[in-house]
Amino acid sequence: MSDPAYDPSTEGAHVDFAADMSYGDYLRLDLVLGAQQPITGHHDETLFIIQHQTMELWMALIIHEVTAARTAIAEDRMRESFKMLTRVARTFEQLNSSWDVLRTLTPSEYTEFRDSLGRSSGFQSWQYRAIEYLLGNKNAAMLKPHDHDPDLVAQLRAHLEAPSLYDEVQRALTRAGFAIDPAHLDRDLAAPYAANPSVLEAWRTIYRDPTAHWTAYELGEKLVDLEDYFRRWRFNHVTTVERIIGAKAGTGGTSGTAYLRRQLDVVLFPELWDVRTSL
């Protein structure tokens, strides 16, 4: 138990912030902690808001790190990219744990305020869409929920049309001497990704002799680790939603858990998973 008479200033702690930046100033806690604005009087709506706001903050970090990792890989700064990719995987692990908190929301509690959400839905998260595009899951139709905001559509379209993280990995492999089909590298980057035999063969060469290709081998494992945690997050999303609303349609008009289950079939780095079968 702390000493109620303890005064930290007697040991040199700075306590006068009239002219200095404080902890709250630096973190802009006035904005962060003022952003929870429930629109009903139901006790559990605060949990729902904080859960999703926190997830959006973690997604902002993922976008920051994946973008930086993509640049590092494009510049052959592989060791730097490994730290960033590890951080992304651990951030997905943190997001994964957050579902445990939302699971404390029971169906009876959620129905008390669900109708007040209108058509708003996590399906419309532009940061989630940016992450999907950055990681290579390209689908131009997913821009439609943002048509009301031209600036945001332009930002997302830039992610859609730019090389994904995996595209830059394949370009790096080519620079390292692996023979990847030029037509595959020059394809429409905004189109959905399709696995390519030359990419699979490159990974097969790497995984057959990791010692000879250690940097590429470690890069491959960083990508698999990232997607592994991302898949767990998607799976836990499905089970959490099913636990709370069952098979109801989503507030945004999707089929709810049926839509989310389809997302479980998405594979971001297919050749890295296929190579395991062929070894």
Detailed description of the structure:
This protein has 279 residues and is mainly α. It has a single domain, classed as Methane Monooxygenase Hydroxylase, Chain G, domain 1, CATH 1.20.58.480. The model has no long low-confidence stretch (mean pLDDT 93). The longest helix is centred in the last third of the chain and has 32 residues. The relative contact order is 0.11. The radius of gyration is 22 Å and the shape is globular.
- What is the mean predicted local confidence, pLDDT? 93
Main β sheet profile: none
Distance between the termini: 58 Å
- Total helices: the number is 13
How much helicity do the residues have?
Answer: 55-70%
Structural Rg: 22 Å
**CATH level 1 name:** Mainly Alpha
Number of domains: 1
How much of the polypeptide forms β-strand, as a percent range? under 5%
Instruction: State the CATH topology.
Output: Methane Monooxygenase Hydroxylase, Chain G, domain 1
Contiguous uncertain segments of 5+ residues: none
What series of H and E elements makes up the topology?
A: HHHHHHHHHHHHH
Structural class category: mainly alpha
Report the strand count: 0
So what's the overall shape? globular
Reported CATH architecture = Up-down Bundle
